[in-house]
Structure formats: C-alpha cells, structure tokens
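Appendix B, example 12.
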Amino acid sequence: RIYSVVHSNDPVARAVTLRVFGSIASVIAERKSVHHCIHRSLESHDQVEVDAALLATSQLCRHSSAFASGVSEKIANMVQGLMTPVDMKLKLIPILEQLHHNIDTATQVRELCLRLLPRYPALSFVVLLLHTLTRLATATLLHIPHHVVLLLDYAQHDARKVVRCKALQEMLALATAVPHTWTHSCISSLLSAVDKMVTDKEKDLALLTLYKLSGSVAVHSMASLKDSIAPYSYTHTLLGSACAVAAVTNIVFASPIDQEQSADELEQMSVLLIESLVVMDHSQPNSAAALRIVLLSLVKLSSHTKLSMQSLNTLPALLPSLPSPRHVAILCKALASVAGVTPDAWRHTTPPITRFLESRGPTQPDTILPLATLLMELHRGSTDTCQHRSFNTRIIPSLQPILCQHSSLWTQYTVARKASMLVRTLPACLPASVF
C-alpha cells in the first residue's frame, strides 16, 4: 500500500512516501524495490522529492550494506558534478559517512573527500568534510594516523580560527572514541604542535585531547612525553593547566617507576592549581570543568599515595571561597571520594566543613547531597565518642532546616538512603513525609 504511492504524479506524495521509507529503514533495509525507488528519486527535478530521497538514502545506508555499496557511485558523481547546486552538495556530504560497510567503499569515500578538500575551500565545505572523514575513520578504524596528520595540518596552517578549532575538536572526538588507534608519533606530533597554536582555546583543546588519551590505553605510548607535558601545568590557562596536571598524573601511575617522587610533586601542583582556580576569575566558562579535572587527578593520587597534611587542611578550607554552588558540589564530591579511601586522615577537617554548613548553608539540591555525603563519609566507621556527639549535636541540627526548606522530597530521600548505608543516624533529622 505504501509503495504504490511512489507511482503518484504528485511530487509531495512521493516525497512523503520516501520519508516514510526513511523512518522504517531498519525494517525494509534489504528490499530491492525500495532501493530502485530511491535511486530514481535522487534524479528527480522536484526539490521536495530530492530532499526526501536524501533523507531516505542516509537512513538506508546506515542499515543496508548492499544499498550503501550501490548508491556510493551515484552520490560521488552528484557531489563532484558541476550541475549539482552547492546547497545540495552540503546535504550529500554527510551521507558519505554512512558508507563504511566494507573496506573498499570506505577507502573510495575517503579518497573522494580528500579530493574535495582542496577543490572546495569554503568554510562550510571544509568543516563538513573534516567531520565526515572523522566519522568514517572512527567507524572503520582505518587511516587514523593519516587522518590525525591531516587534522594537525589544518589546525596549524589554516588561517580561519573556526577551521582550526574544528580540526582540534575532531581530534578530541577521535581520542575519545578510538584512543587505542593513536600511535606514539601521532601523540608526539600533537604535543609539539601546542606551542604553535595561536589562541588559548586551541591550546586548551589540544591539551584536553592529550588528557583524554592519557586516561585510556594510549597512556602506554606517552611514557616518554611526561616531561614535555609537565611545563604546561604552570604556563597555560585554567583548563589547559588542569589537563596537563591530570595527564601527567595518569602517565606517572601507568608506569611503576619513580611513583613516590612524582606523586609528591603532582600533589603540590594539584593543590596549587586548585587554589588558583578559587582565587582567579571564575567568569571563565571552563573554570568548573578545570576544577573537576584537577580534583579527579587528586582523587587518583589519594588512591595510590597518602596525601600530605597541608593538602588535607587546605582543600576543606576553600569551601567558603568557591564562587558558585556548582563548584561547591564538585569539591564536596571529590573530598567525599578521598575520604572514602582514607577516612581517618580527614576527620580533623570536619570543623571547617561544619562552619561552612552553619554560616553559608547550601540551598541548591545539587549541593545538599554532596555536602551531606561528605560529612557522613568523614564520620563513617568512627569509634570516637566526641566525633559522634559532634555529629549529633552540631551537624544534624544544621542539616535539618536546609533539608526541610531548600530540598525536594527526592533530595531528602537520597540523603536518607545515603545515611542508612553510612552512618545510620541522619534519617532521624528528616521530615516524616519522606518515609
């Protein structure tokens, strides 16, 4: 019934039918009659029908290797054809990333995209082609080193900031999706290119890519790069410095050599950077992300080595200086993670946390739970009678009005559930409506 509509004289009816084919592509992916129908519609003179055929082509290429192989030559001819309008070429190029079902087709599509890059140097074409090549490389796991070289070339030599940033974003996507395909030469080339980058945003993206790689199996290819990454911990922006510290931390603990000596230096760098994040301008959009990255690095440090008393005293004292509830929540979560590993070393830090709770209690639900969890972690398993008395007489009365006035029933329930697992006392301070 649906297929019969494609023989209608009304182009709108044919277009609607093609869109239906695209929406049910997973069901009809191998029907040859649908394949031939879409092939014919791609040559239509009605724009509405061609647009619908492009949508159906994209969906069927995703599910059918036979259709993708058959339509690849037609798509290539349309993209290269002089009679094809520019706006249609911009719609055709994203379809190429779906043509990855076999190696031969994927290789031909990659070569086509590489030929199109110098032929169409306009911003929209270059950005779209780089993205298509990245998606194709991610799907096929082919030509990753060559693609990294191509992206680095655009990141360093293209005069347009948008293109340079897009190339670095594509490298970040590669590092996130397929880090195991990165070779040592690719990583070292990216590191050597950091100093040649023009803007801080570009350097941040490059260092963020190195950080992502250091948190994956690619870290074993980065052992010799530790000393080259470390200087960026002091001489870059907040996000770049955080990424450099975290990358060096991952590299150090991926190798058993000189861990103790490096751990002390990394701890000092992390705490210094956290203090810088607190006192510097927090109008930067990446300040919270930088704080999260460096605190994750500190949590990893605490799981391998005992933190110094200076760090234990410094971090909780920074709570009143944080500029927003989001930063408070991030720091509380990190402190709770560290306290879960070494609870005894942190119990003397309860007074500054309690003073923060009494003087400037959190009013955001996203902040209440991390702070309550931190306090419960600090008292979990404690046998000290004074600690229990302080918890019952100071902390619970301070939490009770916050939980009743500024939190939803769901937040109260999550705090009660966390307390039942840790200290088994806090649920008594919650309103009876929770239960």
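Residues 425-435 have pLDDT under 50 and may be disordered. Residues 53 and 64 are 15 Å apart (CA to CA).
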